[in-house]
Amino acid sequence: MADAALRDRLNTLVTSMFATGMLDENFHQLKSMEEDGTAAPGYVADIINLFISNTKRILNDIAALLNQPVVDFDMVDVLVRQLKGCSYSVGAKKVNHSCMQFRRFYEARSKERCLMALNLAWNEFSDVRSKFETMMQLEEQIAAYGPKW
C-alpha cells in the first residue's frame, strides 16, 4: 500500500514537471534506458547528481566572471555552452531555455543583462534541482520496499 502511494507521488511529480515545461523528452529517454535495462539501475540518479554538481560549478564560475571589472564574454560563452549541455543531458528544459537568454546578452556584451540571465538560470536550476532531489528520495523509498512484481 505505501509502495503504491509512493509510486503515485513519484508519477505525479514527474507528470507535473513535464506539464510545467521543466522537463523535456530527453528526460523520458534517459528514464526509459534504465527501465528497459539498457542502463544500469541508478543510472538516472547518477546522471542527475552529475547535472546538479556540474551546474552549480558552472553557474558559480559564470558569476565569478560577471563579477570581474572587465568581463571575459568569450569565457561566459564557453560556460553557457557547458550549462546548455548539462541541462540537455537530463532534459532540464527550463534551464536549457535560460541559456538562450544568456546567449543574446553576452553576444551584446551586456554585463547587466547577463547578471539578469544568471539569476534566471539559478532560479530555474534551483527549481529543477529541488524536484530532482524529491524524485530521487521517492525512488529510494520505493526501492526500500523491494522489487515490483
UniProtKB/TrEMBL annotation:
Query: Is Aminoacyl-tRNA synthetase one of the keywords?
Result: no
Superkingdom of the source? Eukaryota
Q: Which species is this UniProt entry from?
A: Hordeum vulgare subsp. vulgare (Domesticated barley)
Compartment list: Cytoplasm, Cytosol; Nucleus
The coding gene here is LOC123450958
Q: What is this protein called?
A: Histidine-containing phosphotransfer protein
For domains, the record's comment is: Histidine-containing phosphotransfer domain (HPt) contains an active histidine that mediates the phosphotransfer.
GO CC terms in record: cytoplasm; cytosol; nucleus
Entry's InterPro entries? Answer: AHP1-5/YPD1 (IPR045871), HPT_dom_sf (IPR036641)
Q: Does the record bear Repeat in its keywords?
A: no
Its ancestry begins with:
Eukaryota, Viridiplantae, Streptophyta, Embryophyta, Tracheophyta
User: What biological-process GO terms show up in the record?
Assistant: cytokinin-activated signaling pathway; phosphorelay signal transduction system; positive regulation of cytokinin-activated signaling pathway
Function, please? Functions as a two-component phosphorelay mediators between cytokinin sensor histidine kinases and response regulators (B-type ARRs). Plays an important role in propagating cytokinin signal transduction through the multistep His-to-Asp phosphorelay. Functions as a positive regulator of the cytokinin signaling pathway. May play a regulatory role in salt and drought tolerance during plant development.
GO terms assigned for molecular function: histidine phosphotransfer kinase activity; protein histidine kinase binding
Q: What is its main location?
A: cytoplasm
Q: What's in the keyword line of the UniProt record?
A: Cytokinin signaling pathway, Cytoplasm, Nucleus, Sensory transduction, Two-component regulatory system
